[in-house]
Amino acid sequence: MSAYPYQIVNVFAEQRFGGNPLAVFTAAQGLSDDDMQLIARQFNLSETVFLLPGDSEACASLRIFTPGHELPFAGHPTIGSAAVLHALHGLGDQFTLRTRAGLIAIRVQDGIFRLTAPAAQQRAANLAPEMAAAMLGLAPQDIAAAPVWVNAGSEQLLIALASRDAVLRARPQYELFMQHATLRPGRSIAYLWHEADHLATVRLFFEQQGGLVEDPGTGSACANLGGWCVLNGKGPLCWRVEQGEVLARPNVLYLEVDAAQAVHVGGRVMPLAQGMFRLP
Question: What gap in Å lies between CA 162 and CA 22, rounded to an integer?
């Protein structure tokens, strides 16, 4: 029987039981791809991370799995893993992690772990505002701009809404969502957002096992939002991003676009539990 240590942390948490839970396997050597996928399914969290030894460029390599598939990059697993590694190994305030999407720089300041996102690309979604509104259970006037696909490591459909209230009122319709928010078979995802006075209210929905799931806190989508801002001439900026209100699971993210147009996404991480996972 083999045993693998893991930790449970809440990422983007600023209060007890806030944030987005994450399982981090701190020494995943010896686990096969199938093992990782099945363990992620067993934990049934939005993501589970498996840490592997680093190299000359990164202090660790990350494998990130949802219950259904592997992701090349995801924000809350990367930031949660950074916090676990920082505590375990006494890392400094700047270090680098390797994901399947490439190297991710990490900076720690005042208890907030920040990643620097890859440069983003954007393409039209060819989704009329009226159809976007119907897909989200909203009125056409609730849609603030044409939806776009944005990719800063993990491509997602971004839809700007006209008010915070519209973000919170959205009730996506499954059939329309699958028709208009599908990137490829098995990947249907949309991020709703509104910003006013440096405060963004956001929600993310994705298809999983025949239903729509809402994620309480999504770093990759926040990175895409920062990428959208860069591509559309908005910045420098510093936004507080709030997610998870409808789920009664408050998440707080910090989005920065600096003068060099680099996008940084950060949050606090609270450790909760640790244990051993045994495979017969």
Answer: 32
Please, are residues 47 and 76 in contact by the beta-carbon 8 Å criterion?
yes
Which tens digits make up the pLDDT trace of 127-137? 999 999 999 99
- The CA distance from 231 to 201, in Å, is 20
- The model's pTM is 0.94
**pLDDT tens by residue, 12-25:** 999 989 999 999 99
Q: What is the CATH number of the domain that holds 169?
A: 3.10.310.10
Euclidean distance between CA atoms 7 and 80, whole angstroms? 10
Count of structural domains, the chain: 2
> In the predicted model, what is the mean pLDDT of residues 132-147?
98
3-state secondary structure of 70: strand
User: Is residue 141, in this structure, part of any structural domain at all?
Assistant: yes
pLDDT at 1: 78
100/63 Cα distance (integer angstroms): 7
**Confidence at residue 114, expressed as pLDDT on a 0 to 100 scale:** 98
Q: Could you list the residue range(s) of the whole structural domain that residue 275 is in? A: 2-108+268-279
Same domain, 274 and 238: no
Q: Which of 47, 155, 195, 242 is catalytic?
A: 47
195 is catalytic: no
Residue 209 has pLDDT above 90, yes or no: no
The confidence score (pLDDT) of residue 208 equals 86
- Name the average pLDDT for the chain: 96
Q: Does one domain contain both 127 and 250?
A: yes
Residue tagged 């005042």 (tokens): 110
Q: CB-based contacts of 231: which residues, under 8 Å, 6+ apart?
A: 120, 122, 150
22 and 52 share one domain: yes
Does the residue 116 lie in any domain?
no
